[in-house]
Each structure stands twice: as C-alpha cells, then as structure tokens.
Design a protein that fits this description.
The complex is a heterodimer. Chain A is mainly alpha-helical. Chain A has one domain: Cytochrome C Oxidase, Chain A, CATH 1.20.210. Chain A contains 16 helices and no strands. In chain A, helix 3 runs antiparallel to helix 4 and helix 4 runs antiparallel to helix 5. The longest helix of chain A is centred in the N-terminal third of the chain and has 35 residues. Chain B folds into three domains: 109 residues, no CATH class; 118 residues, Immunoglobulin-like (Sandwich), CATH 2.60.40.420; 89 residues, Cupredoxins -  blue copper proteins (Immunoglobulin-like, Sandwich). In chain B, the strands form three sheets. In chain B, strands 1, 6, 8, 9, 11 and 12 form a six-stranded mixed sheet that branches. Chain B has a six-stranded mixed sheet with strand order 2-10-7-3-4-5. Chain B is elongated. The chains are: A mainly alpha, B alpha+beta. Chains A and B meet through helix 4, helix 8, helix 9, helix 10 and helix 11 of A and helix 1, helix 2, helix 3, strand 9 and strand 11 of B.
Chain lengths: 565, 361
C-alpha cells in the first residue's frame, strides 16, 4: 500500500517543460484537477461541484416559486414546471446531497484517522468523475432529449418517478432515459466511493486509533458508507428494470400487461428511505465535531451517540413503506410501518439531547460553525417533530403528497443538512485554505438565509393543512393558498441574498482572510495536528493516539483524556 | 390477531387522549363546530375543519400527535435557549480556562431513552387503532357504492347500482349523526397512471393505482360542495385534475339520481340541432359517450348529462357558455397539454356545439 501511494503522488508526474506549463499556470491547474488522486483535492472537487449543482437546482426552485407566487400565474407552463421540480429534486438528492457527503468524507476521513490517503486513490478519482459525468448527462437532457413538446425535454416524472409514468406510453422521447442513465452512473460512482471510505476506515487507521476512539464524524461516514452500499444497488437495479421495460419489452412495471406499479414504489423506497439517512448523516457528523469544540467539552455520551447512529441506520432499512401509506396497504402493514418509523425517532431524539447536553456546562464560543450548528439543532428538531406527525398514518393520509411534506423534508435537508454543511465549510475552511472565513460576512449569511428559509418553508406547512397538493404548477384563487404562497416566494429572495454573502465570503476570505495557522479553533481531532492546508502526505510522521481527543492529550499532558475513557 | 390487540389497547389510550385533547381545544377556543352553511362551496379545504367521517376520525390522532410534539418542542427549545444563555461567553478571560470535562452519564441517557419510548408506545397504539377503525370500517347494507376511475387528467364516476355514469363531480347524500347514516363506499381504479383521491374535508388520501383496486369511504354530516385534487403527480396537467364532492339532503339526492336517469330530450332550435349534427359528424363521438345515441367513446368524459355539471375540464373552468366555447375552440388554452385535440372548429360550429351541449341535461 505504501508503494501504491508513492506512485499516485502527482509530484512524481514528469515535470512540465513546455512554456505555460510552469506550476500555477492554467494548464498546470487543469492537469492537476484531471490527474489528481489526492483525497484532499478530490474532496474539494466533490464539494465544489456539489455547490455548483446546488446553485443550479436553487435557481430551478426559484423559477417554481415565482410561478406559484400568484394563483393562475403563467410564468412557467406545465411542462417547464414539471421538468423544473424533477430536475430540482434529482439534482439536490443525487448531485448535491451525496457528493457533498462524499466531499467531506474524502477530505476529512483520512486526516481524522491519521492516514496518508484513502485506501484506493484511483478508485476515488474514478468515483468522482463517474458522478460528475452522470450529473452532466442529466443536464444535457435539456439539449439532447427533444420530447413530445419541443420546449422542455428534461425529465418530467418527478424525482421518484412513479411507474407507470415512466413507461414509454406516458413518457415519450428520451427524457426518462437521461434520468435513468445518469442515476445509474451516479450509483456506480457512489458505491465506489462508499466502498473506499469503508475500507479506509477499517484498514488505514493510525496506531492507537481503535474503533472506540474514532471521531463521531468518522463513525457517521462509516455508517453512511454501509447504507450507500446497501441501498444504492437497489436504485441501480430499479434503473436497469425501467430501461428493460422501456426498450426490451420487460413488463416489471407495465400495468397494462399485468406488471405492478406498487412494486416500483417498494423497490424505489427501499433505496429511497435509507437514502434520506444517507443525506442527513453528514449533518450528524459535522454537528458532533463542531458542538464539542465550540462548547469546550467532549461529546456527551460518546458510546450512546455511536449506538444511536448505528441503530438509526439499521431501523432506516425497515421503514420504507411509510412513503406509501396511501397506496392501499392492509391495516397490519400500515401499523407495522407506523411502528418502525416512530422507532427511528428514539435514537434521533437521543442525539439531539446529547448535543444539548454537550453544550450544557460548557463555555460556548459563538463562532460561525456553532451559530450554524445551533440553527441546525432548532430546525432539525422541527423537522423531526413534523416527521413524527407524518409517521402517524392517519395524519399522513391527510398530509402525504401535500405541501406539508414539502415543508417537512426541506426542514430536514435545508434547515438540517444545509445548515450543517455551512457550519462544516466554515469550520474546516481554515484547514483547507489556510485562511479564516470572515465572521461578519458569515453572520450576514446566517441572518439572511435563516430568515429566508423560515419564510419560505414555514408557510408551506399551513398550505398542506389547507389541502394544497405538491407538484401542481398552478392553482385557483380563493382556496386560502394565495397569501402563504406569496410569503413563501418572497422568502426565496432572502435565501438568495444569504447565498450571495456565502459565496462572496468564500472568495473574499481566500484572498483577504487572516492567516489561520494549524489549529485556529483550538480543536482536538487529528486534522488540526498538521499544517493548513495539509501537505500532500497529510502527516510527516504517522501520529499515535491514546484517546478520542488526541490533541487534548497533547495540550493537557497533566490531565489527558485516556485516564477517563 | 395483531390489529385486534392494538385495537383494544389503543381504545384505552384513545379515551385518555380524547379527554386531554378536548380540554386543550376548549381552552384555546379552537373548536371548529362552526354554524352549518348549507349549499355553500367550501373553497378552503382545511383539514382541521372536517365535515365528514373518516376525516373527523383522522383528526383525533392528529390532535394528539400535534399536542405531544408541541410539548416536546417547547421543552427542548426551552432547554436549548437556557443553555445558550447560561453558558454564553462572559468575557475575554473565558479563553484562558477550560470548563469541567464531562464525558456522559448513563442515568441521564437512560432517562431520555425511556421517555421517548413511552411516547412512541402511546402514538403507535393510537394510530393503530385509528388505522383499523378507518380502513376496516364495515360496509352497511344501505351504503351508496361508487366506482371512481382516474384518467389523465379527469375522473370517471360510476354508480353501478343506480346505473349512472358521470365525471369529475361526485354527488352523495348527507348523513345525520344520530339518524340515518348512508356512507358512500368508493372503489378506486386507474385507467393509466397513479392518481390519488383527496378531498380533505371528507377523507384522507387513497391512491388510484392501475391494475389494482383500492377502497375508501365518506360519510358527510353537512351539505355543500367540497373541493379536492388529484394528490399524486400524474403528468402534465396534474394540477388541473380537480374533483368536487356535492353533498345533498337525501331527498335532493334522490332528485339528482332521477334527473341523471331521465332520458335526455332531443335538442330544439336550429342552432342546437346543427350542433348535434356536428357532434356526430366530427370525431367527438370517438372519445365521448352520450347515452342512448351512437356516441359511445370512452376515452373522454361521459357527456350524457353534461349540462347538469358545475365545471368543465375536470374543474379547470366553470361551465358557462363562454368557457365551453373557449374550451372547444382550443382546449390547450385552458388546460395546456391535455389530450382533447383542437378540432379547428369554425365559429358557426362552435355556436352549434355549445348550444347542443347545453341541452344535455
């Protein structure tokens, strides 16, 4: 293995000789990006492309909100609207959420476990490029798949693409094929990267880094990788089955020929629900690192936190049919999935309590990462509680597929996940770029984004109560929906301003930010033991750890952690 | 076996829950027993103002779970805010020392594991009971039966026992709480993709799945018109797949049934007669049925009693002559992407067809 890594090092590439190829030149940067197998550069590329796709999908969402601002609006036609929500959902889940998780895992897992790179650096690069081309293929559908209507030709079947809407009888042209093929590619890339993370955590830990001493971030990524390996192949199988249905006359989901539409839903959600926990895992990961450091205390109840993670992922494999309470299952099946779904709330609740207990008795430092993490706690609590409501099937019969559900999962994915992504980016920005993020700009980012987020998504709960179904491109006046929809659209404006502050902060701090040094937050995990940005090999000397907080031990030799663990 | 045990256990906790909920609602003055406005169109389909079973029965576990989650929310946010204020930074010298390092406490962990378990236990019982009560409700002998078939993007409605076929507007009789109860039981099917039946003030959602038969039911306690939508994305015009339920007094319902079964009178007046001729000469009859005539198409809605309906195009517009004319002239102008073709009708043909359609009652 040691040899392998040596060969992968891009320092060993033949030195450029031609003009314009000197280090720092454009061609050199391109060369570095394309050929690199360094986990840190790949991690940043994952995060960068996720942010890029995030902006595109956000713009699609803004278009939809403009259309829904007024009743009977004609800003977008039905086709444009239907392609927009399909592309928005697909992009956010597969091209933003998962790559973001893999980006953080790639960058941080080797650093945190004291390794020099991922276990399979080439597989790592392969995973990234497969994902990236999958994303490009999805968006190429706008140009390359003229469908029945000359205008919108991107997929318009919704991100969970319920059959038989995807059958050739109902989805003519090639838009659905772009959707299936790009997700198939994405699935391959994700499984490759997950496998890589898994093997890295199991095999590449430094001396003394037992499983019981792994930072919770690494535990989360380990659990995430297990879930990806278990869930994603189901999705890939689904995509292959649709393609067989569409082109080779298979009849899996062809209801006209005796196939089953409900089968697709089972297959899709048995992937789709673990997927939700795959998406939220980075939030657990980042929060569990940020809160202790900025409370100046170790995480409260480490073994319980790990057990909660593992049990969440285990239970999440058995809750998929709570997406299908309206599909006509028997009362026994419905009651079973109510029970399993409510069970998830127990370990999730434990995590929230433990995070608050970590802050209790600490000395809080309200830096940007903690501010966003507190926002996460508050919003994830709301998301969890609306999740409990939706788990109660009788409530779900009213609210399933309504705007309440839209509000619920945006509280999970924006209020929960995205806030911790911001928290994580601000936390590790100094490590990755050697400069501190600007506090004032970050605060403006937080203020605008939080106001905008609640303005957009809180009213959507009420729209659900008032009977507004999701995925409608227009609605009639006087149904009680006008005002809430208007408020919801105005919120987008605030969110957009927040995002502008964020992007500006990233650029501004890269150029003007204060120099960070090795360990600006006075943190305790191994990534802070090396320079910022870390050298190609991460650690000149392989670290040896004796506790969960190796840097605490180093800073407090009189009172080290390993005495208490 | 399993549902029965849950049913009884749930009944006990349900009784408890009713006490708490009614006390809470009375306290807030949120009771939604508004004065009956009969004959109204209930535009706002508020799930907290159900006017029918099973929507009413859904409200009980709904209120319980809302109360429980509200309680949890207040406690956790309270603690969070307390912690943020109590342990805020208190000065520059804060950085010099570290707080006491606490690694955890098994007793505390035990406490906040057991309490959520109890909450979950109660919620499971209450939901299981309500699931069984609603899903497995017995069908009384006097129930009205309806077969509802979803199409892209309209609803086909059959009353098999009454021999009526109509579209997009379900007519049913009202029940009285302590008197005659005539629930309507609906068999849900789909002709193409998945749709979902949702009339919030009547009942929760049930999907219309092709190649599968689902069931739901309604038992309204108030007359009026109730609005619903298709709630499962079903293609281009999902948004305009609207449904209305019109609840009548039992006598009025009988009148409606008779009006639907009465043979349609031949059109009178030159315009309407010309319209009828056009209707049969052009390809309208390929897709539409007018009972008792050669028009037996089944791809579009049955038009036998078209002029007794409130709306056209599955609720996309009111059924006024001007809207019918606009619809016939170019269906895409009202419902872009719908499957009714633009027949390139001349103004004279349009006038005739509008006049003819108005006689279908």
């Amino acid at each position: 293995m040691e040899n392998d890594i040596l060969i992968e090092d891009d320092y060993r590439l033949p030195d450029p000789v031609r003009l314009g190829d000197e280090p720092g030149s454009f061609t050199r940067i391109i060369q570095k990006i394309v050929f690199t197998v360094d986990h840190k550069i790949l991690g940043l590329m994952y995060i960068g492309s996720a942010l890029f796709f995030f902006v595109i999908a956000g713009l699609l969402a803004s278009l939809m909100r403009i259309q829904l601002m007024y009743p009977n609006n004609t800003f977008l036609g039905p086709n444009a609207f239907n392609t927009s929500f399909t592309m928005h959902g697909t992009t956010m889940v597969f091209l933003v959420g998962m790559p973001m998780a893999f980006g953080f895992a790639n960058y941080l897992v080797p650093l945190m476990i004291g390794a020099r790179d991922m276990a399979f650096p080439r597989l790592n690069a392969f995973g990234f490029w497969v994902f990236f081309f999958g994303g490009c293929l999805l968006f190429f559908s706008y140009l390359g798949a003229p469908g029945l209507y000359a205008a919108g030709s991107a997929p318009d079947v919704g991100w969970f693409a319920y059959s038989p809407l995807t059958a050739r009888a109902f989805s003519r042209g090639h838009s659905t094929d772009y959707w299936t093929l790009s997700l198939l590619l994405g699935g391959v890339g994700s499984v490759a990267t997950a496998l890589n993370v898994l093997v890295t955590v199991i095999c590449c830990r430094c001396k003394g880094m037992t499983l019981g001493r792994l930072p919770i971030f690494v535990w989360s990524m380990l659990v995430l990788s297990f879930l990806v390996i278990l869930a994603l192949p189901c999705l890939s199988a689904c995509q292959i089955m649709i393609t067989l249905d569409r082109y080779l006359g298979a009849k899996f989901f062809d209801t006209q020929a005796g196939g089953s539409a409900v089968l697709w839903q089972h297959f899709f959600w048995i992937f789709g629900h673990p997927e939700v926990y795959i998406l939220i895992m980075p939030a657990f990961a980042i929060t569990s690192e940020v809160i202790p450091v900025f409370s100046r205390k170790p995480i409260f109840g480490y073994p319980i936190m790990v057990a909660a993670l593992v049990s969440i992922s285990f239970i999440s494999l058995g809750v998929w049919a709570h997406h299908m309470f309206c599909v006509g299952m028997t009362s026994l099946e419905n009651a079973f999935f109510v029970t399993s779904t409510l069970l998830v709330s127990i370990p999730t609740g434990i995590k929230i309590f433990n995070w608050i207990a970590t802050m209790y008795g600490g000395r809080l430092r309200f830096e940007l990462p903690l501010i966003f993490a507190v926002g996460f706690l508050f919003q994830f609590l709301i998301a969890g509680l609306t999740g409990v409501m939706l788990a109660v099937a009788p409530f779900d019969w009213q609210l399933s597929d309504s705007y309440f559900v839209v509000a619920h999962f945006h509280y999970v994915l924006i209020g929960g996940l995205l806030f911790t992504i911001f928290s994580g980016i601000y936390y590790w920005y100094p490590k990755a770029f050697g400069r501190m993020p600007n506090f004032k700009l970050g605060l403006w980012h937080f203020v605008f984004f939080t106001i905008g987020f609640h303005m957009t998504f809180l009213p959507q709960h009420f729209l659900g109560f008032l009977g507004m179904p999701r995925r409608i491109y227009t609605y009639q006046a006087d149904r009680g929906w006008d005002e809430w929809n208007f408020v919801s659209t105005i919120g987008v404006l605030f969110q957009a301003v927040g995002i502008l502050f964020f992007v500006y902060n990233l650029i501004y701090s890269y150029i003007r930010g204060e120099s960070a040094g090795e360990d600006p937050w006075d943190a305790w995990t191994l990534e802070w033991a090396t320079t910022s940005p870390p050298p190609d090999y991460n650690f000149a000397e392989m670290p040896v750890v004796k506790s969960r907080r190796p840097l605490w031990d180093a800073k407090h030799p009189d009172d080290p952690d390993w005495k208490y663990e | 076996m399993f549902p029965v045990v849950f049913y009884w256990l749930g009944k006990i906790s349900g009784a408890l829950n009713r006490c708490i909920v009614s006390a809470f609602l009375a306290g807030l003055g949120m009771c939604s027993a508004q004065a009956a406005e009969s004959g109204d169109v209930h535009l706002v389909a508020d799930i907290f103002r159900p006017l029918s079973r099973p929507a009413e029965m859904l409200l009980e576990p709904t209120q319980l779970v809302l109360l429980v989650t509200l309680g949890i929310f207040l406690v956790v946010v309270g603690v969070l805010v307390f912690v943020l204020i109590q342990f805020r930074p208190r000065g520059p010298e804060d950085h010099l020392t570290e707080p006491p390092q606490i690694y955890g406490s098994n007793n505390i962990e035990m406490a906040w594991t057991v309490i959520p378990c109890l909450v979950v236990f109660v919620l499971v019982l209450v939901s299981a009971r309500s699931i069984v009560e609603i899903q497995d409700a017995p069908v009384p002998e006097n129930a009205i039966h309806i077969r509802l078939v979803g199409h892209q993007w309209w609803w086909e409605i059959h009353y098999p026992e009454l021999g009526i076929t109509t579209a997009n507007e379900i007519h049913i009789p009202v029940s009285t709480r302590n008197g005659v109860q005539t629930p309507t039981h609906i068999q849900l099917e789909s002709a193409d993709v998945i749709h979902s039946f949702w009339v919030p003030q009547m009942a929760g959602k049930t999907d219309l799945v092709p190649n599968r038969i689902n069931k739901t039911w309604m038992e309204p306690f108030q007359v009026g018109t109730f609005l619903g939508n298709c709630a499962e994305y079903c293609g281009t015009q999902h948004a305009n797949m609207l449904l209305r339920v019109i609840v009548h007094e039992p006598k009025e319902f009988q009148k409606w049934v008779e009006s639907q079964k009465r043979p349609t009178a031949e059109p009178e007046g030159a315009l309407a007669i010309q319209g009828k001729k056009d209707f049969f000469d052009l390809s309208c009859i390929n897709c539409h049925t007018v009972d008792g005539t050669l028009a037996k198409g089944v791809f579009g809605p049955d038009l036998t009693k078209f002029a007794t309906r409130q709306t056209l195009g599955a609720g996309v517009a009111p059924r006024t002559p001007a809207d019918i004319r606009a619809w016939l002239a170019n269906p895409d102008s009202l419902k872009p992407g719908c499957y009714m073709p633009d027949m390139k009708l001349t103004p004279q043909q349009l006038d005739g067809l509008v006049a003819y359609l108005e006689t279908l009652k």
